[in-house]
Structure formats: structure tokens, C-alpha cells
């Protein structure tokens, strides 16, 4: 794994534009924050693509809809420059993609690399999604959906633009000091892509409010990915691995594999590093290390799925992490957020969108149960926790061959490991205020009701 990731990073990092540098202003971009500059910036991108050149900007604030980067170019957003997203949905073309685990038509992101290669997005400037208007649209919809038993549909029907999408892309380098803020939905989604390096990025999604489902970096059915030196403040999962939901994810059946997440700090979010809840395609050869999570993060290591997701995980390594004030440092649940995870149509529902039918397609039990094995978690230091370890799955789909070693946690209570098989615990030191010891229950035993860490798509309550 080290060799190919090094090569991927080298290829992305050493990609330099061969052609001329063009300035978007020379193609009509105003940068006054009021005139829509989409067409002018896109003209500059198209021109730079002819020679594998660079697009840059004079200082200013550039109001724009979706932009589409082309193979071979560099988009340089220098200090003093902000690209801010339009507040109008018509400025984001509806295109085929995958969103929250199912393939469907959805608004393009603000910055898109679709079916392209050898692309760099860099600079010390800012890309701003102007999130509050999109967050409000979500809460307004959810207030009407939830009483009708449609909590699960809220994320799909509130069409909020992502900030950056890499789809069917390869050899992309994203970073170089750039700031990504106030995303309408997920901040960076790496979808069906390979050989991607994301390094030296700052993500801020809790400015001007707290955006629901504003994940930091989502690696979705992709491979050969490196994320390093990220500074993340979001309102859902910070560093997250995904690969499909339920029947549609099982149909696509593309794993996420060969991923390294390292040397990053998470200030707010549902979890520091997450696998799931979209797990249908499986995970292989995943490593996360040198992560720091602060109070404001719900879980440290979080593995989550559901009994309709299916999928598997093998050879997962989480190590050398420090959690301060994180309620649940080690958290595994295979029955995550039922009101979101299990979609059913209300009685009498007619003329529903096609993707509702996809979401409510039944998955046979044998396919729906997730299977996770060979997970190694070590060198974890946590203080100020509520529940040190919280693990639960299913008696007929146990969590197999996990190893925990060199774990040092100070917590209110120790917690429970349920539905496990062939676990090894070595040098696990849990200091508890209530004097409890970590309980390892045999498969089939009923674990206590799960503690709740904030986050997990339920991080905030909308204002009246």
C-alpha cells in the first residue's frame, strides 16, 4: 500500500501546468460578489485546458454556479480570492451522480472534476458554498417530512449542492492551503475515482450556523486515496469512508480500498474517522493515524451500518489518535439511526419519485447483514469521555477478529462489547469515574441501550 500511495501522491503533487497562466478576469470575470461570473470563469478553464495551463484570479469575490475543471489544468485560488456559490439552484446543473449511497440525478457541485484526470485545485484562497440558505431549505423540508414518517427522504429531496465533487476522476491533487467553507451539503466527495491526494485543506462548515450533513471528506467507492494535513470543523462525519446504500449499493458493488487518512485535526463533527453508514460495497486496506479530535466531536473511531446495508470490511487499521472530550472514543454500531437508515413508504403513497422506490426496495436478510472483520485499533489516548467503548452488531453477523491494544481512556463509564467473536484485547486501560469495567457480552446477549454521541446526521435541532 505504501508504494502505490506514494506514487499516487507523487503523480498528483508533481503535476504542474505545462501551458500558460490565464486570468479569469481577462475572460470577463468581475469579482465584485454580485455579478454572476460562472460563464467567464468557465471560459477561462476551457481556454487553459487547451494547453494544460493554469487559471487564476485577481483579488476579489467571485459569485459563481457550478464550474467544471478539465484534464491537465490547475485552478489556482490565491490568497485574497473567494469563489462563492450562487444561492439559486438553477445555477447547478442536474447531473447523474451518487448521493448518500444511491445513484440518482442531483445538482452538480460548485467545483466539479467529472471524467477528467491530472487536475490540481490549489491556492491559499477560499471556496465558499454560502451554506445557510441550503441548510434552511433542508430544515424547512424536514419539518414537513418527519411527521409523515419520511425522515429518511429529507437528505435526498432537499437538493443541496456539494462544494467539491471528484467523480470518475484520477490523478487529482486538491489542497495547497485552500479553505473550504459553508458547504451546502458534503464538502468533498471522492466518487468512483482513483489516485487522489487531498492535503493541506481547511474545512469550516459551522460559520453562520451549523449545516446538517456537512461532512468533511467522503471517500465513496474509490481507491488509492491519500488525505493528509486536514483541519476540519463540520457538523457531521469529518473523514468518512462510504460505498453504497442497501439495494442500490449492492447492485453497484464497488468497494472503497487502499486509503490512508493521516496527520489531521478534527475540531467539531459527528466523528473523527468513520466507516459507513453506506457500507454495501465493502472496505479493504484502510489506514487512519495521527488524528486529533477535540471536544465538539461525537465519536473518535466510528464504524456504523444497518441490517439492510450489507457489505463487509477487512484489514482496517486505526492507530495513534488522541481524543479530548470526545464522548465515545471507540464506537461500533450496526443499527445506526433507524429513522434514517430504514426507508418505508407511508401508507397510500402515490406518484413517488423513482429514487424513493430504490430506497424502499427490500433487501433479503442474508444480503442485508454487514460483516466486519480484521479491524485493528491501537495507540488510542482519550480523556474526558462519557462511554469508553460501545460496540454492538447482531448475533448472526458478529464482529470478528478485532484487536484492541495500547488503549488508554479516561471515561465516566467503561461500556460494552456485544456480538463479537475472536477479539483480542491487550493493554487496554480504561479508568472510570463510576468504577465500571468493560463488559464483553457473548453473542445473543442483550446489550444495554446505546449511549448517544451527538452527530450522526442528528447533530442540531432547527431553530423555530
Automatic annotation (TrEMBL):
<keyword id="KW-0732">Signal</keyword>
<dbReference type="InterPro" id="IPR000743">
    <property type="entry name" value="Glyco_hydro_28"/>
</dbReference>
<dbReference type="GO" id="GO:0004650">
    <property type="term" value="F:polygalacturonase activity"/>
</dbReference>
<dbReference type="InterPro" id="IPR051801">
    <property type="entry name" value="GH28_Enzymes"/>
</dbReference>
<feature type="domain" description="Rhamnogalacturonase A/B/Epimerase-like pectate lyase">
    <location>
        <begin position="22"/>
        <end position="75"/>
    </location>
</feature>
<protein>
    <submittedName>
        <fullName>Polygalacturonase</fullName>
    </submittedName>
</protein>
<dbReference type="GO" id="GO:0005975">
    <property type="term" value="P:carbohydrate metabolic process"/>
</dbReference>
<keyword id="KW-0378">Hydrolase</keyword>
<dbReference type="InterPro" id="IPR006626">
    <property type="entry name" value="PbH1"/>
</dbReference>
<feature type="compositionally biased region" description="Basic and acidic residues">
    <location>
        <begin position="455"/>
        <end position="464"/>
    </location>
</feature>
<dbReference type="InterPro" id="IPR012334">
    <property type="entry name" value="Pectin_lyas_fold"/>
</dbReference>
<dbReference type="InterPro" id="IPR024535">
    <property type="entry name" value="RHGA/B-epi-like_pectate_lyase"/>
</dbReference>
<dbReference type="Pfam" id="PF00295">
    <property type="entry name" value="Glyco_hydro_28"/>
</dbReference>
<keyword id="KW-0326">Glycosidase</keyword>
<dbReference type="InterPro" id="IPR011050">
    <property type="entry name" value="Pectin_lyase_fold/virulence"/>
</dbReference>
<dbReference type="Pfam" id="PF12708">
    <property type="entry name" value="Pect-lyase_RHGA_epim"/>
</dbReference>
<feature type="region of interest" description="Disordered">
    <location>
        <begin position="439"/>
        <end position="464"/>
    </location>
</feature>
<feature type="signal peptide">
    <location>
        <begin position="1"/>
        <end position="17"/>
    </location>
</feature>
<comment type="similarity">
    <text>Belongs to the glycosyl hydrolase 28 family.</text>
</comment>
Amino acid at each position: 500500500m505504501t508504494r502505490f500511495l506514494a506514487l499516487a501522491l507523487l503523480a498528483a503533487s508533481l503535476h504542474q501546468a505545462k501551458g500558460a497562466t490565464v486570468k479569469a478576469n481577462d475572460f470577463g470575470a468581475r469579482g465584485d460578489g454580485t455579478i454572476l461570473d460562472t460563464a467567464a470563469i468557465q471560459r477561462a478553464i476551457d481556454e487553459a485546458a487547451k494547453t494544460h495551463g493554469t487559471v487564476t484570479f485577481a483579488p476579489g469575490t467571485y459569485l459563481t454556479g457550478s464550474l467544471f475543471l478539465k484534464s491537465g489544468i490547475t485552478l489556482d485560488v490565491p490568497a485574497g480570492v473567494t469563489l462563492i456559490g450562487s444561492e439559486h439552484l438553477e445555477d447547478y446543473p442536474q447531473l447523474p451522480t451518487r448521493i448518500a449511497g444511491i445513484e440518482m440525478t442531483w445538482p452538480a457541485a460548485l467545483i466539479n472534476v467529472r471524467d477528467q484526470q491530472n487536475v490540481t485545485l490549489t491556492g491559499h484562497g477560499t471556496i465558499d458554498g454560502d451554506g445557510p440558505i441550503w441548510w434552511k431549505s433542508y430544515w424547512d423540508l424536514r419539518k414537513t417530512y418527519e411527521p409523515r414518517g419520511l425522515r429518511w427522504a429529507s437528505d435526498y429531496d432537499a437538493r443541496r449542492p456539494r462544494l467539491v465533487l471528484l467523480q470518475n476522476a484520477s490523478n487529482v491533487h486538491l489542497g495547497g492551503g485552500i479553505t473550504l467553507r459553508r458547504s451546502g451539503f458534503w464538502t468533498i466527495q471522492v466518487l468512483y475515482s482513483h489516485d487522489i491526494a487531498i492535503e493541506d485543506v481547511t474545512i469550516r462548515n459551522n460559520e453562520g450556523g451549523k449545516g446538517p450533513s456537512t461532512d468533511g471528506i467522503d471517500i465513496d467507492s474509490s481507491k488509492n486515496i491519500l488525505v493528509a494535513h486536514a483541519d476540519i470543523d463540520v457538523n457531521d462525519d469529518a473523514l468518512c469512508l462510504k460505498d453504497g446504500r442497501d439495494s442500490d449499493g449492492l447492485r453497484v458493488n464497488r468497494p472503497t480500498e487502499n486509503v490512508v487518512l493521516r496527520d489531521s485535526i478534527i475540531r467539531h463533527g459527528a466523528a473523527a474517522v468513520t466507516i459507513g453508514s453506506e457500507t454495501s460495497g465493502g472496505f479493504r486496506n484502510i489506514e487512519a493515524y495521527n488524528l486529533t479530535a477535540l471536544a465538539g466531536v461525537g465519536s473518535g473511531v466510528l464504524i456504523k451500518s444497518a441490517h439492510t446495508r450489507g457489505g463487509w470490511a477487512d484489514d482496517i487499521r486505526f492507530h495513534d489518535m488522541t481524543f479530548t472530550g470526545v464522548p465515545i472514543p471507540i464506537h461500533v454500531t450496526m443499527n445506526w439511526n433507524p429513522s434514517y437508515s430504514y426507508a418505508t413508504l407511508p401508507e397510500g403513497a402515490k406518484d413517488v419519485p423513482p429514487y424513493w422506490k430504490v430506497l424502499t426496495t427490500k433487501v433479503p436478510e442474508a444480503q442485508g447483514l454487514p460483516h466486519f472483520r480484521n479491524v485493528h485499533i491501537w495507540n488510542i489516548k482519550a480523556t474526558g469521555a462519557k462511554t469508553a467503548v460501545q460496540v454492538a452488531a447482531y448475533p448472526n453477523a458478529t464482529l470478528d477478529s478485532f484487536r484492541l491494544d495500547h488503549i488508554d481512556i479516561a471515561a465516566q463509564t467503561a461500556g460494552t462489547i456485544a456480538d463479537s467473536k475472536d477479539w483480542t484485547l491487550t493493554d487496554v486501560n480504561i479508568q472510570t469515574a463510576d468504577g465500571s469495567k468493560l463488559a464483553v457480552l457473548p453473542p445473543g446477549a442483550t446489550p444495554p441501550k446505546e449511549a448517544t454521541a451527538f452527530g450522526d446526521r442528528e447533530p442540531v435541532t432547527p431553530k423555530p
